């Protein structure tokens, strides 16, 4: 009897633990469901906004197709073919269905399906923004840490001045100066575009397209001459964009580190004799990494959609330059298609930021 009485609480504890474990599973599924529902609502709102913008812009999409010299009959035929004679709700339903099937219509500028143009332009922007973000993280995070550790001293003043220049100088001006000095005068790097004209045929015939990135595809194909030439062209726009990313990331890292270095756990670690490098680079930076991840991801998203001026200056055939040309040509299908892609990228990167936040910070789980 005594053994049964002693074992009863153990059995009860296991029952409670099993019940608690059983409650965790529905909670996880509920969280996943809420996240998925939020994602669907956000994307639906994005499509609604782009559709409304397409209808409010003072550009007649029918005229951009048939031209101003078209007859009234030709105009009405084109409008019916484009579905513009239907009620607005039905037009929106057709628009959502088309986008869901990857159909953004045809571009009036290139006479190709917009989705094919985006498939060519987006990898160029992705390549540029990714390398710029890597550069910004590799130099911006250490710069912010050093600046915070030396608050008020000369390293802090120098690094803050460098960051201030990154915020103050217009990107198009810095790009033009960089081209003038390093390409025009010193001839250290390649000029505008992704490749020299003499290498474009080699890229066309000798490189198999796997990702759309010249650097990756040429390396996979063993076209080392194309790879080297592409590196000479990409280094300058990457440095220009990376400098602005560095300025933002270093500033935010400094702010987060100053907050962590003032916490009691840092003082306790120092009193216990923990080496200073470990206090700063392991404990303080480890806690600052949680909000810093969000900053880096959003900075990456901003470079993906905000590199229009850089792509224009360096004639980089990316998404920003494509949308800019489409705007000047009143090519609404291309503009709206590019806008949707940028919006989807922002939504996905925000979701990635939340997932990384949970992975890094156990308290968020």
Task: Set out the fold topology.
Elements: H1 2-56, H2 61-66, H3 72-81, H4 88-100, H5 114-149, H6 154-168, H7 171-185, H8 197-206, H9 214-221, H10 224-261, H11 264-271, H12 276-306, H13 308-313, H14 319-328, H15 332-360
Helix pairs in contact: 1-15, 5-6, 5-10, 5-12, 5-15, 6-10, 7-10, 9-10, 10-12, 12-15, 14-15
Describe this structure in words.
- The chain is mostly helical.
- Helix 5 crosses helix 10, helix 6 packs across helix 10 and helix 9 packs across helix 10.
- The chain starts with a helix and ends in a 5-residue tail after the last helix.
- The chain folds into two domains: 40 residues, no CATH class; 251 residues, Orthogonal Bundle (MetI-like fold), CATH 1.10.3720.10.
- Keywords: Cell membrane, Membrane, Transmembrane, Transmembrane helix, Transport.
- It holds the Pfam family BPD_transp_1_N.
- It is a multi-pass membrane protein.
- This is Peptide/nickel transport system permease protein.
Share of residues in strands: under 5%
Query: What is the structural class?
Result: mainly alpha
Name of the CATH class of the largest domain: Mainly Alpha
How many E strands? 0
**SSE string, helices as H and strands as E:** HHHHHHHHHHHHHHH
Which superfamily, in CATH terms, is the homologous superfamily of the largest domain?
MetI-like
The radius of gyration is: 27 Å
Count of structural domains: 2
N-end to C-end Cα span: 43 Å
GO molecular function, one term: dipeptide transmembrane transporter activity
Transmembrane segments: 37-57, 128-149, 161-183, 226-249, 280-303, 334-360
Family: Belongs to the binding-protein-dependent transport system permease family.
Domain ABC transmembrane type-1: 122-357
